[in-house]
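INPUT
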Amino acid sequence: MIVEIGHFALVLALAAALAQTIVPAWGARAGDAELMAVGRSAALTQFACIAIAFAALVNAHLASDFSVLNVAENSHSAAPAIYKITGVWGNHEGSMLLWVLILAIFGALVALFGRSLPRTLRANALAVQGLISVAFLLFILLTSNPFERLAPAPFEGRDLNPILQDPGLAIHPPLLYLGYVGFSIVYSFAAAALIEGRIDAAWARFVRPFALVAWGLLTIGIAAGSFWAYYTLGWGGFWFWDPVENASLMPWLAGTAFIHSVAVMEKRDALKVWTIFLAILAFSFSLLGTFLVRSGVLTSVHAFASDPRRGVFILAILALFILGSFALFAWRAPMLKQGGLFAPVSREGALVLNNLLLTTACATVFFGTLYPLALEQFTGEKITVGAPFFNMTCGVLLLAAAGVTPVGFSLAWKRGDLLGVVQRLAVAIVAGAVVAVVGAAWLRGGPVLASVAAGVAVFVILGALIEVFARAWRPGLSAGLALKRAAGLPLSFWGAALAHIGVGMTLLGLAGVGFGSEAITTLHKGVPQAVGPYAITLDSVGERVGPNYRETVSTMTVRSGDRVVATIEPARRQFAARTMTTTEAGMATLNFGQIYVSIADPAPDGAVPARLYWKPLITLIWLGGCAMAAGGALSLADRRLRFGVARRSRAAMAAAAAG
Amino acid sequence: MLWFVLAGLAAFAVLAAIWPLLRGSDGNGADAASASEAAFYKAQIDEIGRDVERGQLPESEAASARAEAARRLLAAGSAVPRAAPKGRSRLAAAALVAIGVPAIAFPLYAMLGRPQMRDEPLASRESAAHAGDDIEAAVAGVEKHLISEPGDGKGWAVLAPVYMRLERYEDGAHAYSEALRLLGEQPGLRAAYGEALVAAAGGVVTDKAREAFGKALAGDPSLPQARFYLALAAEQDGRTADAIHAYEALVADAPPGAVWAGAVRSRLAGLKGEPPPTAAEAPALGSPDQKAMIEGMVTRLAGRLATNGGSLDEWARLIRAYTVLHQADKAKAALADARKALAPDSNAVASLDALARDLGLDSGLGDAN
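OUTPUT
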């Protein structure tokens, strides 16, 4: 009965989402506060319904209820409980349910915390959010229903894909979806602002926290996905320019541009139209990503769903929301009042430059991803657009964007002093140049981009630190006073500094790839094999039994000189229910770098064919992502951005004072 | 019981959604919003001062920035909240939600849901499974045993044919390969492994399968199963002469009364272009495994045709297969489905009619039409 209750709750959510769309929009037109308030209650109702449905599906997976088709196809009674739960979103239907659940969570957040918003804006935003829910709930119910039943129920499930049986799956897709879907709120507010024909700095300040949450989670989601690919796919690649990865990178780039331009808008009331445009763009790319992944138009590592009906349905949703919002934009944007003015050389100007670079980079990813698909569709010709294209276009543009970062961060608002900034950053510029030159000399004819990236990375990190220092310290100030001043700097400033340092860290990690080394060889017991500055020795090969697999494990020691620095256990896993073998890489982290070993099946004489890598600084790629997200979180904690009870009482006081 | 819960859920959802309409107005919301907007611009003006103090905004620009913010502050203060019309529209909205939500939810659920089906969590089914002789429960038990003791070769050998019967050919092939690895080379087992590979490849004798049959024959040159599939491989390669030769040798070596000889003869007849044997003298199918395999293929074809449709040839193949398997009812049903699916194409329907006459399926249908 629980399953059917969940199914009904999902249908009910659709009805509630319809109410959420129609009633508040009607209220906003008629100016009726009660009707507009239905937006809030309906959003909360919709959230409750989807939560019930999701809980019912989780319960079915946990109880191994194979009378549910989704459970029978993607679960196995012997799987550990954690993978029974992750199995819920490890498949198409369940992941779409998670998608709408997150959509509803964001809607509920607006309903709960949006008290300080102008009523019509909130009502319209919730109506747009409701419409998105309607579209996706219909999609789920009509083409990808997770509550489809199976009679008679089989006694064992078909297991979830062993590659997906990993802690990475527990966190990667939900984070990514939180990011993707988080931009839906930004989109809804942009659409609401366009419907009202009114947008101002207060709009920016309300949207910014949501944008920061979405962006931060998307950042961690992408980093987690990259790390997951790195350690499960068995050859140490962390980014493949795979269409699915590009699909998550595009909203991230547009979102990064958005959180910068929305900061300008909040502070200076400038760049309004551009900000709205980016808001629409960020969510459009999220939808595009959903389409690419969920329609099965591409067959890649990630695409485990394919059904043309679904593709057409999502394409229709895509067209409705993207074309609809751009039509609205074309109609309304010229009516928006322009705000603050600024000189070309100013912080605003630098942010515009950063925005242009980011959106251009985004465009290159867009064409690099979709052109091969379109070509294959229309001419049948298959081409691959791979890393060389993306590195030389998107990579270079992003490098340039990173290079602008410290300059923009140091410029003043409205009119900046470029010469003064360059003087202030002189140390960072020189240090970056030295690193680039030394790196190029070290590599001698190796990848130029790696040494340039290393130089830019150093420049970005030092630049951010110099700016912190410059804000806290004035000539003649004592150390204690400077610390006090530093503590007094707004959290959003600290957040920005940390995020920029994160950008530098990630760049440094990427640059490290050019300085790594690898060996592909057969390891014999007791014979050391050198890789980078380390030597690896195979000690033993053994068998182990896991909950629903068994594995062949090789134990190896990593030595630096004569000193043992780590022991690693690369393995091959065989799963019973699906005749499939996965490779578990053996990894050891040494000074931000990693030793990475993946093995093939051992030969009868005990020799193990293996690929050995030394990847210097590679962990910085993901640590940098974490730093960026942490920067976003710090910025979010800034008191200016808090909303809710505390601000309301202050607002009331201010109103009383003004009255 | 279920319907009570669902009705309760729907009632709750409706009440929760229209709550603001029932509760009446909270008039201060609009004021709070505009007040918060005013406070926001005030804070912005204060911040300009701090920016100047930190050297983030040149003194010369601060005045104009203040003026901008002040203009917006005045605009925020002067926004006049519209008087809200009440009463009728509120009632209309409440009615719309109260009627609309159940009116959408219940029919849609009735269409999509399976209210008569109960939950079947595994825990509640295990005792029932042990009582009965459900084959899948038995398989699940053996699988569990093999996870903890993967070295039990006999276990794999027992499991493999069961997988084949359940149409889990890939799993079957895997189980045979494990059994071979653990029990050592056995020609019969090796040939069965090859057969599983063929089934997993949808009836194509792959290189891997060919290798398996070769190995099996090396151990026992008389193994008819292996010889048959190698002949089939030759046929699939287009080496018809070789195939005919191999089939003939196989028939010649067949012990009297061998059940599989018929199947080989029909194959042979087909290759030589002789008329295929009719349903009445259709060859007895070989071992239960082979029969299960063929039935599996037919089931898969039927499933594919039912969901995705297919060409005339595919439908005809399905109908013929059912006839050969002596499943006249299913053949008739398939014929009816095919007529429906191919209805727009009059040529196809005519071919179907001819086929039905040839197979003697049309007797009942002809009268009905």
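end of record. Residues 277-286, 364-369 of chain B have pLDDT under 50 and may be disordered.
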